[in-house]
Write a structure and sequence with these properties.
This protein is mainly alpha-helical. It has nine helices and three strands, in the order αααααααββαβα. It has a three-stranded mixed sheet. A hairpin with a 2-residue loop joins strand 1 (224-235) and strand 2 (238-247). The radius of gyration is 25 Å and the shape is elongated. It starts with a helix and ends with a helix.
Length: 298
């Protein structure tokens, strides 16, 4: 089992345990903040299970049906996860408003405090683990999962603060305000997940600094006169690069091929942790101005 899939199994198991504990205490206590955290954990569990499915498919090699592999399924998973998080945030906001209207009173505050403290410790440990896997594998899904559970850490801290304040002051409105604030934060945190996933699905170019490094490598070669139609995109741990290089018209195909190989090796050194898929088209002269595709891109 790959580190990514193992991470989703761990996060799914943790989410299932936290869901059971929080639901029991949340329903018994009537605390909207605890219940909000419980609902979030339920979604965590389903999202982690979905992520396992996404990663399992993304890791499949390219074939005749998917010539570039299935890496974009990770971006799709990120968009779906962000959407689910947004919907959960809206539901929790509704719960907070409903409690403010009905005036429901929280119970079992001390028991709730213990549960949320345990939940906080477990969630922090999970975030540390997911961040480690994310940095090691560069998986967008695991990165999204880590960010998701990071918001849970803040949520658990807020719920703890809510329970402590209600226990000390007896003001239930504190639970309502904190529960509402948590829901708004959850909605806000989902925006980045959705944005990043959509940008990958739309084939956004890699960052400008990386593009400049690639261009510098092209122009450092004496036999390369110019370059055009440089295109880049990133999917998971893969970076795709396409470019037209204008060689000296007197160069042999063998020499041009060797130079292209040398250029590819230099590009891969920009980030050795990434899997570079590089496609170089060799031009004997600069045909960019007469290329209809070139006019569109430029």
């Amino acid at each position: 089992m790959s580190p990514q899939r193992k991470a989703t199994v761990v996060s799914s198991t943790v989410a299932a345990i936290l869901t059971l504990i929080k639901l029991v205490v949340g329903i018994a206590s009537g605390s909207v903040a605890v219940l909000a955290s419980a609902v979030d954990s339920i979604l965590d569990m389903f999202v982690s299970l979905f992520n396992y499915f996404a990663i399992s498919n993304a890791e499949k090699p390219a074939d005749k049906y998917f010539n570039y592999g299935r890496g974009k399924i990770e971006a799709l998973a990120s968009v779906i996860e962000g959407t689910i998080i947004t919907l959960s945030g809206l539901f929790l906001l509704y719960q907070a408003i409903e409690k403010a209207i009905t005036g429901e009173v929280s119970k079992y505050l001390e028991e709730s405090l213990v549960v949320m403290l345990i939940s906080l410790i477990i969630t922090i440990s999970l975030v540390v683990y997911l961040n480690y896997v994310s940095k090691k594998t560069h998986s967008m899904v695991i990165k999204a999962d880590a960010l998701h559970y990071k918001t849970d850490v803040y949520t658990n801290i807020a719920v703890l603060a809510s329970l402590i304040l209600v226990n000390l002051t007896g003001y239930e409105i504190v639970d309502v305000f904190i529960g509402g604030a948590i829901s708004l934060y959850i909605i806000y945190s989902a925006y980045e997940l959705i944005q990043n996933g959509v940008l990958v699905l739309l084939d956004k170019a890699v960052d400008e600094d990386t593009v400049k490094q690639i261009e510098k490598i092209f122009l450092a070669e004496e036999r390369v006169n110019n370059q055009h139609l440089l295109k880049t995109r990133e999917v998971g741990n893969k970076i795709f690069v396409e470019v037209h290089l204008v060689f000296d018209c007197l160069i042999t195909l063998m020499e041009a091929h060797k130079i292209s190989d040398r250029i590819e090796n230099k590009i891969r050194k920009i980030n050795k942790e990434k899997n570079w898929i590089i496609n170089i088209h060799m031009d004997p002269y600069d045909d960019f101005e007469s290329n209809d595709e070139g006019h569109l891109v430029n």
